[in-house]
Amino acid sequence: MGVNIVLAAQSLQAMKGMIIRMKKDLELYIHIPFCARKCNYCDFLSGPASQDEMLKYTDFLCKEIKSQGSLPLEYRVVSIFFGGGTPSLLPLEQFGRIFDTIKECFEIVSTCEITIECNPGTVTKDKLFGYYTLGINRLSFGLQSANNEELRLLGRIHTFEEFVENYEHAREVGFQNINIDLMSALPYQTLESYETTLEKVLKLEPEHISAYSLILEEGTSFYERFSEHGEEKDAIPDVILDRLMYEHTKEILHSSGYNRYEISNYAKPGRECLHNIGYWKRMEYLGLGLGASSFIDHVRYRNFDAINDYVKALNSSLEVRQVEEVLSKYAEMEEFMFLGLRLSKGVSKKEFKQQFLISMEEIYGTKLMQLQKNGLLKIDEDHVSLTDIGIDVSNQVLAEFLLDDTDI
Ligand code: SF4
Known about the structure:
The protein is α/β, with parallel strands linked by helices. The protein is built from 17 helices and 15 strands.
């Protein structure tokens, strides 16, 4: 009988092992929708909040994490990204509670990349040390510019000097993986001022730099002032200057040892953002918090983005996650191409066949040939990727991968 018990215990252990091995990888995105004040160009789901409102929001976030049904049994967490908003506005204790709840509910792999977006001016050395102690291993600073006049125009709450102080504190407490977000094509920005920003940032030697062009979003004060209907429309750099800034970003960062691994993202070797790569490679992710998006089992979801609806759903049996789109096989193929082609490495024909049981050539053969002939795509035995010219006109190239009735 003793032997039987041992055997039963061993097979139970083996079964548990199988269940653990069978778990799929999942990324977590946690939305913290608070900002000290609204930047002039921003249309994200974010705004100011009191300490009490932040506390209540954390309560609901924890409730949402705990209400994931069988999901924690099926998935293990490989990356966590706290985005916003300004996650670093949330008091440290609230982060501790969120972390404890995630750990209580989900298996987290030991190599998990855990990022928090920080706005300069909202962190202290103690707070940064607190993040480090909690297990956060990557910081993403929203700097945008090293020019204080540009920062003021953008409506940012910090100066460049305040950012440098935060950055140095982050290094002192132990962070070895830091991203800095930058923006180009700002109103009144010159090529010289943009290059000075790049030089100042490079002196700090961050592991990762994201460099995007400003987009004028409707409904923002920047749109009112600087769009084609605005009185200061001429302040926006024209296409040629925008292009030059973009080219110079590539050259300057490349000569300083950064690889462009995605259209707008640069990293020192081995320091690419795993969370973002997962997104472009269509890894499944669970978004938690107000308005957060999820992609699970071929379905795209979005949480309620009105706080009353979000709270009401969590206080009842209503689903917080609303179905946005159940992806057809063809919609998945489109996503596979236009998300994957953003990566410098491009997309793999082998992976396409594994996922869709049909070859990429059978679906996209003529388009692939045309785009290659026009110098916009590179194609080798397995990979298809954008050429430099293809990256320049990436929006047009990626649109070519939308399928219509004649392709299917
Ligand atoms: S800090 Fe970020 S999220 Fe907040 S208003 Fe500014 S750009 Fe938007």
